[in-house]
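Running co-folding for iron/sulfur cluster.
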Amino acid sequence: MALLTFKKGVHPHDHKELSKESPIQRFPAPKTVYIPVCQHLGSPSQPVVAKGDRVKKGTLIAKVTGFVSANVHSSVSGTVKDIVDIPTVFGNRAPAVVIENDGLDEKDYLSPLNSEDRAVLIERIKECGLVGMGGATFPTQVKLSPPPDKKIDILIINGAECEPYLTSDYRLMLESPESVIEGARIFLKILGAQKGYIGIEANKQDVYEKMDAILKDNSVLKAVLLKTKYPQGAEKQLIYAVTKRKVPAGGLPMDVGVVVQNSATAVAAYEAVKAGKPLFERIVTVSGSGINKPANLLVSTGTLVKDVIEHCGGLTEEAAKVILGGPMMGISVAELDIPVTKGTSGIVVLTDKEVQKEEYEACIRCGKCVDACPMNLSPFHYIALGEVKQYIECEKWRVMDCMECGSCAYVCPAKRPIVQFVKIAKQKVLAEIRRRGAK
Ligand code: SF4
Ligand code: SF4
């Protein structure tokens, strides 16, 4: 069978063997959880509980504040102790609701929903605080509400999980394929799309076979096999691989009639509709040579990363770098007193040998970064211009189209940290665009 794919990209070792055989296990909810009121892209939610309030698993603790925002719910039953600023994955501090777990495990779910009405289904997804669980954390109800002039005919469930080490989506799709499919049916209903595809990388052949067998008589939804290549799960690349449609520069998937949702988000949608369950826990892959016992754990949001690591036998002596997410696009964290959130797909610990050193060399003009870039950019310019503080010039070289996938840096023989310079360049270019707009 021909494998679907996109142009360019890279082939990093996937290291999935470390955790792929580990079935999902529930991580016991800790005595205290620290639940950030903003776990999504968009405006922070507003706390609706106060010190001393009693909550249950699923109780709303912070409410949406704008169009692009998401509700936040308690992941334990217990008592609100405080609302304090805690460290976040981004290195700053932000408000979190601190809840002492009473161990009673009482639930506060919504009623199961038995409706096919699009508006009712979207409202349920909003109420339950769903966000993109592949790491992007964009509020799901917004993605499911394209403007009327954007007709969606294709839904793609992203089961690529192309980041090395991560196997949380793999285990979820393998252990609960029906839930992924039911979630996809809900999205199809909401979008009014005629076709749905579940895109699965070829390194998850067993998942593909399972999905394919379940869907063999389904004329709307189909499992498709993708080439194992990075970044196969990036939205624009996935859309091209499955439909051969090209999202225009600066455009969105809806511009080509497509909506992409992660497989874990599909399961969350199914649980929100079928069981009235808000999103307050997620599967996290804990892996890497720097961790003693790699695992796939169902973790309550607000659980501290250090407790999850300890549960997995702690760090090895060689552990050097902890990354939340995968090694290509994840964020390296300096402290472990930060909580697992809706977007924490993995905790990956690399050893000294695997970590790239600070020093890098001059560009040798080999062009490998250009050959690897799936967005057809010229990545070497961004770092060359950044080194001489000419960040604004990067706009001409389409830096805003860069999705920070890291493919260019991965292949660079001079180990040039291109993405670090891209991040700075984007901030400077955005500021410049705003300045021009204000004139
Ligand atoms: S320039 Fe951006 S999009 Fe292109 S490979 Fe590098 S990080 Fe990825
Ligand atoms: S891969 Fe590295 S060394 Fe080669 S052209 Fe790109 S930035 Fe320069």
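Result summary
Residues 363-369, 380, 411-414, 416 surround iron/sulfur cluster (ligand 2) (CB under 6 Å).
The mean pLDDT is 95.
Job closed.
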